[in-house]
Amino acid sequence: MNPDFKATLDRAGLQALFEVLKARGYRLVGPRVRDGAIVYDELASVDALPAGWTDEQEGGKYRLRKREDRALFGYAVGPHSWKKFLFPPMMRLWSARRTSNAFEIAPEQEESPRYAFIGVRSCELHAIAIQDKVFIEGKFVDPVYAARRKNAFIVAVNCSQAGGTCFCVSMKTGPKARAGFDLALTEIIEGARHFFLVESGTDAGAQVLAQIPHRSATEQEQKAAEQVVERTASQMGRTMDTTDIKELLYRNYEHPRWDDVASRCLTCANCTMVCPTCFCSTVEDTTDLTGEQAERWRKWDSCFQVDFSYIVGGSIRASAKSRYRQWMTHKLATWIDQFGTSGCVGCGRCITWCPVAIDITEEVRAIRETESA
Amino acid sequence: MIFMVSPLEHDAMTGVDPMLPQPFRIRRRRSETLDTFTLEIERAKHNQAFGFAPGQFNMLYVLGVGEIPISICGDPRSNSLMHTTRVVGPVTMAMSKLRRGDILGVRGPFGSSWPTEQLDGCDVVVVAGGIGLAPLRGALHQLVRRRKKLGKLVFLYGARTPGDILYRRELELWQQRGLQVEVTVDRAPLSWLGHVGVVTTLIQRAPFDPGNTVAMICGPEEMMRYAVFELQKRGVPTANIFLSMERNMKCAVGFCGHCQFGPEFICKDGPILRYDRIANWFAIRDL
After folding, report:
1. How much is the ipTM here?
2. Which of B86, B104, B251 is the mutation pick for testing A, counting most A CBs within 10 A?
3. Stated pTM of the model
């Protein structure tokens, strides 16, 4: 198939896509409304998508609101990201059993789920690529992540509107999905007409597309899709000047702004939980009451926890200042030295879900503007 | 000449799950001092050798209690897998109660190692504080063996009291083989005729040619800070100073994020790091 081929689907065509993916053995996960937010969960059909809903986002604020149309993907991003499927928040790594004079350790036998991710935003594709660097492209490979990642089928959706805390344009991660997807959709609503422009990014995507009723997109339809992302790009709720950002932060580990932000930060760890790239974890060793059976669990952890940096004698980062500084300098600066990329994709979740509305773009701006030369 | 820490090498890169402990049996347990002990261990299932380099560490697991990083202190040549530990928390407490024949879970070896094989013709000064001698023990074995190829070979060691001095017999043996040993203690009874005071004060008088010296340091971070300061004052180049760093570790393979020190992951970039690489980070408090 011509790689530049673009097709259109209507809502029934989207349902056909779901059916084909299910028939191919995928578990569909994607956006749906729950608990007053758009979250990622199992999807039975297109009817489960958040039709006619959008989100309003600001620092420390997230509200769902009815749209005037029936858009299925007419929101930005919610508190969930796809990392919960690729890097589960809590999982058993192995079980151990005491034997007569020793013990045996059995690895967790998991048949890796085959997920089809429906509605992955461009910033989220970048976030997945960043976690790939952490878990599968380094000296060691995380087998859990690697298997889930390899199995995943990704249906991206180009953003048709930006959220109030979005800054993907600054981070060069969106709003148009350019790589890392099997299929990418652009949702277009023109009066009564509601359709999706589709392009495939892989052979697997092209094969799936070939199985569903579609027709090739007209030039006008392609133009309409381009306009959708252009409009979104012009609506960014936030901006961040990333010029020499690594050097900027490396020069400013002792900037007074860290005291200022620490006086507001609750060290609640929300930002790290909603961040699609944060990858820190801890392990917990447990036993049953007899001491015969033991297990090791891996759980998401956060550099905002005081015991995160504990060594004999005390925690290295005992203060809120040192913990916020660790998070932000890691995200925007040391990450670049570690993995050759920023750890921030500009999705805005850490701003929206911060209970006291700390804004990473504002913190960078403050340091940049008040740096003593 | 540029000295380098040796990067880690591990089975995990060839597909073995690095998160899965393997069973090892305790061959020997020895009490070192009042609160330290050494476990010598071997594979429980087959006799395959366990290769490691001095300065590397293992993750040791006590069934149902927990897992901690402990440096390997055996002699790399004889492949004797030894760990000397101080009792400081629940895992080391449980470990101290293990006896010959008991089983430990082991993941490793992990991390970088001391540059002991690259030092022909150099003066070498090794500085240890307290239990910080354990990660240097394997390196000292190697250095003493290469004694003739080295210039001056000095070991400066600080312990809390004379009773806290580790590996006394070996220190004497190494001394006979040409290692110059200077020991200092924080507190001493009247019978002690040696130095009293912090180990870093021994650096100014130690016999070595600063421009041609490689230094290896392990101990509490404050001690290492002053040791580096004293070495620099003598004129030892920062690229010739190596430290063994400690941070919280859960995974040992760069996934858990706990051991970050600026851009370095102590578990895989360290624990042995060349000072010039981390000098800027070393100066920042609460990093």
Report:
1. 0.94
2. B251
3. 0.95
